[in-house]
User: Fold this.
Amino acid sequence: MFAAFLVVVVLAAAGITIRRILLDRGGGTVECGLRRPGGTWRLGVAAYGADELRWYDGVGVLLTPEKILSRRALSVTARRPADPAEAVRLGPGMMVVACSAGEDAGTIELAMGEAALTGFLAWLEAAPPGSYQRRAG
Assistant:
């Protein structure tokens, strides 16, 4: 019985590891926490596309993103360091950005390191003219 349980645990860990390798192979990925209004922080990976940010839950084996944020609809409304309670879950040195993600998606918060945040803001601002409105920073 224990051997079967151990095999399941090893296979799950292998699946999660292989998934992360496949996501990272495409390039343009960063560790990123996501929180919806009234929700808790979930750790995951964000992958930059030409016109969208795809967010994948950190624990899972599916290669489909859990959340897709259109660059055209995405705008940063606030930025702050993670508070001490958030840092316990997210890790030290994380920055939190509140984002308007369009009428359908509402407001979400993303958490990432400072270097990743710089890349995220550059990616947003590199959108074609007229497709990104800077609201706060």
Q: What stands out?
A: The chain has a mean pLDDT of 83.
